């Protein structure tokens, strides 16, 4: 299974980083299979209105590890800016008990998705599952941690336990800023960035970090950098650079 993730390295100023019971079961499995394809393979379906006019995001969070409302709003705005979905974007949220499995392997996250995901592609609505986990990814170190992983065509995990630990460190961005950047970064992998189902329109893939951008300060850098707002107030969340946007536009996005 392809594993892609945004690494965030820590310094004082920077965070680096789918008739009878048997027949019904077969139909259900066939529908779910559309949401369990390789990462990046649904990029055009997510970006354009060719096959799907709307998008539903199913956010499932461990109790006590729900995303901030500011992050959800920022994520929604990011989706509206980049996707052609004339019937809109719907974000659903619910909380579930802890699995007790932290730290997590991708295989364990996939098992959790299998038991907690309830929404799959239906008619002209494409769905994405996002799990907010109460812990970290396995094999994190004191110097390098993983904030999120996009692991199938419509599947993302956000390591909310790690995000919360980072947000309380001195000089770190706010929790909502880290959540927003991580959601936007990982969803951009679902959109096929960089060179992951959405063809390159120019050479900007980082040779040292596959499927990430080599443009400084781009959201799709392997190391996500945050900047201070005007007069040091607030956090500036990184955005896609012009080359990443050109790739998305050529594949049906805005």
Descriptive report:
Helix content is 30%, strand content 20%. With 254 residues, the chain is an alpha/beta fold. It has one domain: Collagenase (Catalytic Domain), CATH 3.40.390. A hairpin with a 6-residue loop joins β7 and β8. The longest helix is centred in the C-terminal third of the chain and has 16 residues. The radius of gyration is 18 Å and the shape is globular.
Query: SS-based structural class?
Result: alpha/beta
Write the CATH homologous superfamily: Collagenase (Catalytic Domain)
Tell the overall outline: globular
* Average pLDDT rating: 86
Biggest sheet descriptor = 6 strands, mixed
CATH fold name, please?
Answer: Collagenase (Catalytic Domain)
> Secondary-structure element sequence?
EHHEHEHEEEHHEEH
Number of helices: 7
CA distance, first residue to last residue = 29 Å
List keywords for this structure.
254 residues, alpha/beta, Collagenase (Catalytic Domain), 6-stranded mixed β-sheet, two-stranded antiparallel sheet, 20% strand, globular, disordered N terminus
């Amino acid at each position: 299974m392809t594993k892609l993730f945004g690494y965030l390295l820590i310094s004082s100023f920077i965070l680096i980083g789918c008739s009878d019971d048997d027949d019904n079961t077969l139909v259900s499995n066939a529908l779910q299979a559309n949401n369990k394809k390789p990462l990046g393979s649904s990029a055009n379906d997510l970006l354009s209105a060719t096959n799907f006019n709307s998008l539903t995001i199913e956010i499932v969070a461990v109790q006590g590890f729900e995303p901030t409302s500011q992050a959800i709003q920022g994520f929604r705005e990011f989706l509206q800016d980049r996707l052609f979905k004339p019937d809109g974007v719907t974000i659903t949220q619910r909380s579930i008990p802890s699995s007790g499995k932290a730290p997590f392997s991708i295989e364990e996250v996939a098992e959790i998705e299998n038991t907690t995901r309830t929404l799959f592609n239906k008619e002209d609505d494409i769905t994405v599952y996002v799990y907010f986990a109460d812990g970290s990814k396995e094999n994190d170190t004191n110097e390098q941690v993983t904030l999120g992983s996009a692991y199938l065509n419509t599947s993302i995990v956000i390591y909310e336990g790690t995000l919360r630990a980072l947000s309380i460190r001195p000089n770190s961005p706010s929790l909502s800023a880290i959540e927003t950047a991580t959601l936007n970064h990982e969803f951009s992998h679902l959109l096929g960035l960089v060179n992951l189902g959405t063809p390159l329109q120019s050479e900007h893939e980082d040779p040292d970090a596959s499927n990430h951008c080599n443009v400084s300060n781009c959201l799709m850098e392997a190391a996500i950098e945050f900047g201070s707002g005007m007069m040091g107030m607030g956090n500036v969340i990184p955005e896609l650079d012009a080359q990443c946007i050109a790739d998305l536009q050529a594949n049906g996005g805005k």
